[in-house]
Design a protein that fits this description.
heterodimer, A: about 350 residues, mainly alpha, Cytochrome Bc1 Complex, Chain C, two-stranded antiparallel ribbon, B: about 110 residues
Chain lengths: ~350, ~110
């Protein structure tokens, strides 16, 4: 056994990694639970990749076969319905945890110097997670997914100059067709995973480079607070959280497996009750409520510009709220709470 | 018997009880005449295909699997809790730091 270990060590030099993990410490305070969200996102990403590969063995991204192949996965493949359900629910769990992770960092001001780049990569990862959800929604190729994708890809059209071009790039043509389906599939299974792995690598490196941030009130004490060694104290606790989350995921996946609607018909009118995934509901509801014209401008354009400004503000938050640690930036906190309340309120309204 | 052991014993009995109940239910399903173990035909065109209902036998097997998963999780959580307590105790006593500083013997 020792010979094998020495052989591996000589070639990979893993001792440096284990030595780093042995020295790594995790701050212990009332917000320590937020540290579990990052690793739990990784857990669900792993499940997504694993179940995604299993689904890709049988899924066929063509106009004629997409819906039928998903139906086959659900009805003919052994436990295919469960694999699809776990894939779908783990996406929901992952995105919910991404939101919790991001909000936790925003409210504890962990994005401030020197962690601006960590925040930037984190927000990009959130954008990629949402892109995964958007592209994945079309793949079952049922009436609802077609209609929702038509609405979603129509959104950039309101933008001046590049709007129409952007919509054409997303749809691979003028309208949502079989070409859109194969483009979304390619993006979903190859472009986005590669982008996620690259940015995730940077994000993890930066997290290790700067260590774990402590909330403002802990930092003000100027005395080093209690810490937990990462290995084994924190890692074992993390493993417990993973186990509970896995159990919850499997239970929900079994008890509430998603179905699939009838095959999409490109010539049919949009069905009633079109709804995107829950994480896009607030945008969907905002667009529905926006008047056709605002101050003489196209209402949809104004809505898209406001959303883009919100996203840009979120991305550049560390540079907007760059006050020294002694000042809390209460306005930013207030705006963050208002934004959260708005998103929740609009999502609930959309469901009613 | 202390409190922790009592809780673990109760959880174990409950888990075993649920497994037993699931087993009895499954046995009933197996004894009953099954119209077909194959999944039902795909939904007619224009209808939604739901993930359920699946064949009763397969559904029951999944519920039994789920019960086993939760039982395994409960056991693993118990083991992890003990390991965490032990690791915390070692950390509090500073044994991990002391071990790092201990002089190495010849040959190291």
């Amino acid at each position: 056994m020792n010979v094998v270990r020495a052989w591996i060590e000589e070639r990979l030099g893993l001792r440096a990694v284990t030595a780093f993990l042995e020295k790594k410490e995790v701050p212990r305070h009332k917000h320590t639970f937020l540290y579990y969200t990052g690793s739990s996102i990784l857990l669900f990403l792993g499940i997504q990749i694993f179940t995604g590969v299993l689904l890709a063995f049988y899924y066929q991204p063509t106009l004629a076969e997409a819906n039928a192949s998903v139906v086959r996965i659900m009805t003919e493949m052994p436990l295919g319905w469960l694999v699809r359900s776990v894939h779908s629910w783990s996406a929901t769990f992952m995105i919910a945890l991404v939101f919790v992770h991001l909000l936790g960092i925003a409210f504890t001001k962990a994005y401030r110097k020197p962690r601006e780049a960590t925040w930037l990569t984190g927000v990009l990862l959130m954008g990629l997670s949402l892109a995964f959800g958007f592209t994945g929604y079309l793949l079952p190729w049922d009436e609802l997914s077609l209609a929702a994708t038509k609405v979603g890809t129509n959104l950039p059209k309101a933008l001046p100059v590049i709007g129409t071009w952007l919509t054409q790039v997303m749809r691979a043509g003028e309208d949502v067709t079989g070409d859109t389906l194969s483009r979304f599939f390619t993006v979903h299974v190859s472009v986005l995973p590669l982008a996620v792995l690259a940015i995730l690598g940077m994000h993890l490196f930066l997290v290790q480079r700067h260590g774990m941030s402590v909330p403002l009130e802990e930092e003000r004490r100027k005395v080093k607070g209690p810490v937990l060694p990462f290995w084994p104290n924190f890692a074992f606790r993390e493993a417990g959280v993973w186990l509970v989350l896995l159990g919850l995921l499997l239970t929900i996946a079994v008890l509430s497996a998603p179905g699939i609607g009838p095959q999409a018909d490109l010539m049919a009118p949009a069905p009633e009750g079109i709804q995107p995934e829950w994480y896009f509901l607030f945008m969907f509801q905002t667009l529905k409520l926006f008047p056709a014209r605002v101050l003489g401008l196209n209402g949809e354009l104004v809505a898209v510009l406001i959303m883009m400004a919100g996203m840009a503000a979120l991305l550049l938050l560390p540079f907007i709220d760059n006050r020294p640690f002694e000042r809390k930036g209460k306005v930013i906190t207030l705006l963050a709470w208002a934004g959260l309340a708005y998103a929740l309120g609009m999502s609930i309204w959309s469901l009613l | 018997m202390n409190g922790r052991r009592r809780v673990m014993a109760t959880v174990g009995i409950l888990a075993l009880g649920s497994l037993l109940a699931a087993g009895v239910l499954e046995a009933r399903v197996q004894e009953a005449t099954q119209p077909s173990v194959k999944p039902g035909p795909a939904a007619a065109p224009g209808q939604e295909t739901s993930a359920a209902p699946r064949p009763a036998k397969e559904r029951m097997a999944v519920y039994v699997l789920l019960a086993w998963v939760w039982f395994s999780i409960a056991v693993l959580l118990g083991v992890l809790r003990m390991r965490v307590r032990e690791a915390d105790r070692v950390h509090r006593m500073g044994l991990s730091r002391a071990a790092g500083k201990a002089p190495k013997g010849p040959g190291h």
